[in-house]
């Protein structure tokens, strides 16, 4: 699997599938490496 890179203002959509836990861990790792934290989309969309 290629290394995931995230940037500020990226929107990540997740699907419930058998690899969801691995996907969540990959997103968490990428966020930590980039010094980012997840926020709720509803806080930015009206």
Can you offer a commentary on this structure?
This protein is an all-alpha fold. It has one domain (1-46). It is built from one helix and no strands. It starts with 19 loop residues before the first helix and ends in a 12-residue tail after the last helix. The model has no long low-confidence stretch (mean pLDDT 88).
Q: Topology, pairings included?
A:
Blueprint: H1 20-34
Alpha carbon gyration radius: 11 Å
Alpha-carbon distance between the two ends: 35 Å
Morphology: globular
* Oligomeric assembly: single chain
Count of helical regions: 1
Please write the string of helix (H) and strand (E) elements.
H
Q: Provide the β-strand percentage band.
A: under 5%
Low-confidence stretches: none
Question: Mean of residue pLDDT?
Answer: 88
Overall number of domains? 1
Helix content: 25-40%
Task: Give structural attributes.
single chain; 46 residues; mainly alpha; 0% strand; globular
Summarize the structure.
It contains one helix and no strands.
